[in-house]
Amino acid sequence: MFSENPFATLSSSIPSSLMQAYLLLMIAFVVGGTLFDMLHKQNAAYFFQHRRKARAQAQREVSGGEKAVLAGETVAEALVSGEFCNSRRRIAHLLAMYGFIVYAITTFVMVFWYSAPAVATPTILSLLWHVGALLILIGGIWFWFFIRVDVAAEGHSPLRVFHADLFILGLLKSAALALIWSWLQWSSSPLAIWALGLYLIATTVLFGSVPWSKFSHMFYKPAAAFQRRFEEARGSRMNLPLPENRPEVLGSARELPRHY
Fold first, then answer.
1. Torsion angle, alpha carbons of 207, 75, 84, 131, to 10
2. Which of 26, 63, 67, 73 sits at 20 to 30 Å (Cα–Cα) from 187?
3. How far is CA 169 from the centre of its chain?
4. Cβ of 67: how many Cβ atoms within 10 Å?
5. What is the dihedral of CA 114, 218, 80, 151, to 10 degrees?
6. Alpha carbons 32 and 36: distance in angstroms, whole number
7. How far is residue 185's CA from residue 130's CA, in Å, rounded to a whole number?
């Protein structure tokens, strides 16, 4: 199972061109959904307005070399999920993030270059596709049942679902159904066609719900992190004021905040 390209097997009943068109449609959903989200929530307008205010308060100019260093630091922080203080959440996020990256890239490569039955798929690609889906499940399930603040800290049921959970649930369903479909197809089960249908529905919901989920945040966060570093380097960072009568950041009478 892990060494088999499920899309190559599927191409015996569904044309490769149709699978490729579906992937392109999902990419269009992400791009269009992100742009719609930016326009609807006016994120771009707020970003440029904030940038103009910060530029007016700048105390120094930042050279091109400094910008490159700041960009490198931003990338390095994103690669290790440095924005998370809690180590458990960071590990869970890294598992799901790298699992999704590997899963998405190998899906694209296998569908566009190795979906024809006559073309042999490198074993490493099929293996990485399955491992990527497994990493998504491990990181996502760990976060959902053991790390979420309303579950871990507030004692609520892990079955409670909110609007903000659309992305993580869609991602978990897509990855789980991908593995189930791959296994059923590998075992020549008649249920494989039903698993494929559910897999396509879950994946379409995942990418088609970008304007209403947190999917687009993965594009905002790096840009916001770089802008924060850039403003701090220019001396124009506009921080929120400290609480009244609390000149210190956090006193000894209060514990450090826990990020779940």
1. 50
2. 26
3. 12
4. 14
5. -110
6. 6
7. 14
